[in-house]
Write a structure and sequence with these properties.
418 residues; alpha/beta; Rossmann fold; 2 domains; seven-stranded parallel sheet; disordered N terminus
C-alpha cells in the first residue's frame, strides 16, 4: 500500500473539548514536602487541564521518579507493578514531547510518532483510553490495534487522519507492519509495557521484528516497564534502550498498605463452598476471583453461575468482543463477579472492586502482588482473600518474602463453612 501524503495540520475534531476558557489558576494544588506536584513539571496547560479533570494532584512514586528524566528526552527502564501510575508516567512524557515538537513538513498517514506495545488486548485498550483522556484538550489522535477485533475497522482508523499515538499488541501490530498498513519509520517515542509478561507469553521475537521497523535506538526515546528486573529483562533493556535512567519501585510501596490481606486455610473440598458464601456476603460488592489456568476458570465460572451469582469470565479462549462486553458490564455493575486468569487480570482497571479472591495461590509470587492490586485502587481500600489448601500453603513463604511482611493464616469464619 502506498503511503498517502497529508500535512500535519489537523482540523478540530468533535471529540476534542474546548480548552480556551481554562487556566492553571483554576487548578490549585498546595506544595507538600516530599511530594512532587504535576505543577512542578512545567507541563503545557492542555495536559494540566486533562490532569485536573482526572483528579491527579501529586505524582505517584514512579511518576515522580521517571518524568523529570523522560521530560528531558532520556531513555528509562522502570521496575513497577500495575496500579503504581506507570501508564500516566509514560503517557505524560509522550504527549508533552509531541506538543512541544510539532512536525511542520508533510507527514504520511499511518505513520505514528509514538508507539506503545503491551502484551494483552485489555491492557492496550486501557492504555489507549488513558491516552485519549490525557489528550482530550489537544489535537493529538490515538489508535489502538488489537487482535480479536475488526481488522478493517482498525485499518480505517489509520487512514481517516494522521495518527500520533498507536497502542498495540505485538501480534496485531506485526500484521499491520508486514502488510505495510502502518509505517514505524517516524516513531520518536517507544514504550514497552510489562516486558516481563511479554517474555512469559513468547512475544519477544515479534517485538524484535517490530523494533527493527523503528528508527535506531539512539534516534528514538525508549521506555521499558516491567514488574521484575530479572536477567532476561535487563538484557532486553540493554539492547533496546540508550543510556537509560533506572528506576525501581518496590512492591511494598504499591497498594498493599490499602489492601487488607486474609489467608483462609481450607481443604480442597471446602474451597467452593467458602467461595460461594463469600460472594453472597453483603460486604462483597464487586469482586474478582483469580485462578491459575483457563480450564480452572471455565469450570469455576460455570459453577458460580449455577449457584445463582451474576458472573463473567476473562480468559484467553474467550473471544475479544465478548471479553470487552464482560468488562463493560462489570464496570456498569450488571455483573458482580469476574473469574479471571492472571494474563487477563492485568487488564482489569476498575474502581470500586471491594474484594480480590485467590481461588488458587499463583505459582509466581509477582502474580500475587498484581492480583491484590486490582482492589484498593485510587483512594479506596480493599480486601484480598486467599483460599489456601494444605499443598498451596508451601507457596506462601515466597510471597511473604516479596511483600516483606508475614501473612497471618486463619480458619474461615464458621458462617463461611455452612
Amino acid at each position: 500500500m502506498d503511503k498517502e501524503k497529508k500535512t500535519t495540520h489537523k482540523q478540530p475534531r468533535d471529540q476534542v473539548k474546548s480548552h480556551a476558557s481554562w487556566s492553571l489558576d483554576q487548578f490549585i494544588v498546595p506544595a507538600v514536602e516530599g511530594k512532587i506536584r504535576f505543577h512542578d513539571l512545567d507541563l503545557p496547560d492542555e495536559i494540566m487541564h486533562a490532569i485536573a479533570d482526572l483528579g491527579f494532584e501529586y505524582c505517584s512514586p514512579v511518576q515522580g521518579q521517571v518524568l523529570p528524566h523522560t521530560l528531558q528526552g532520556l531513555d528509562a527502564i522502570a521496575k513497577a507493578q500495575t496500579g503504581t501510575g506507570k501508564t500516566a508516567a509514560f503517557l505524560v512524557g509522550i504527549i508533552d514531547d509531541l506538543l512541544g515538537n510539532p512536525i511542520e513538513e508533510k507527514r504520511f498517514l499511518a505513520e505514528p510518532r509514538a508507539l506503545i506495545i503491551a502484551p494483552t488486548r485489555e491492557l492496550v485498550m486501557q492504555i489507549a483510553q488513558d491516552a485519549k483522556d490525557l489528550c482530550k484538550y489537544t489535537q493529538l489522535s490515538v489508535v489502538a490495534l488489537v487482535g480479536g477485533m475488526d481488522f478493517g475497522k482498525q485499518q480505517k482508523q489509520l487512514q481517516q487522519q494522521l495518527v500520533d499515538i498507536v497502542v498495540a499488541t505485538p501480534g496485531r501490530l506485526i500484521d499491520f507492519v508486514t502488510r505495510k498498513y502502518i509505517h514505524l519509520d517516524m516513531v520518536e517515542s517507544l514504550v514497552l509495557d510489562e516486558a516481563d509478561r511479554m517474555l512469559d507469553m513468547g512475544f519477544i521475537p515479534q517485538v524484535k521484528q517490530i523494533l527493527r521497523a523503528t528508527p535506531p535506538v539512539e534516534n528514538r526515546q525508549t521506555q521499558l516497564y516491567s514488574a521484575t528486573f530479572d536477567n532476561d529483562v535487563l538484557q532486553l533493556a540493554k539492547k533496546w534502550t540508550h543510556e537509560p535512567v533506572r528506576i525501581e519501585i518496590e512492591p511494598e510501596q504499591v497498594a498493599t498498605d490499602k489492601v487488607e490481606q486474609r489467608i483462609y486455610m481450607v481443604s480442597r473440598e471446602e474451597k467452593f463452598r467458602v467461595l460461594i458464601n463469600l460472594l453472597r456476603s453483603p460486604e462483597v460488592q464487586r469482586s474478582i476471583v483469580f485462578v491459575n489456568r483457563r480450564d480452572q476458570g471455565q469450570h469455576l465460572f460455570e459453577k458460580v453461575r449455577k449457584a445463582g451469582i451474576k458472573a463473567g469470565i476473562l480468559s484467553g479462549e474467550i473471544p475479544q468482543q465478548k471479553r470487552t462486553r464482560t468488562l463493560e458490564e462489570f464496570k456498569q455493575g450488571k455483573i458482580d463477579v469476574i473469574v479471571a486468569t492472571d494474563v487477563m487480570g492485568r487488564g482489569i482497571h476498575v474502581d470500586g472492586v471491594s474484594h480480590v479472591i485467590n481461588y488458587n495461590l499463583p505459582d509466581d509470587p509477582e502474580d500475587y502482588v498484581h492480583r491484590i492490586g486490582r482492589t484498593g485502587r485510587a483512594a479506596a481500600t480493599g480486601i484480598a482473600i486467599t483460599l489456601a489448601c494444605e499443598m498451596e500453603s508451601y507457596q506462601l513463604p515466597a510471597i511473604e518474602k516479596l511483600l516483606g511482611t508475614k501473612l497471618k493464616c486463619v480458619l474461615p469464619e464458621e458462617a463461611l463453612l455452612v
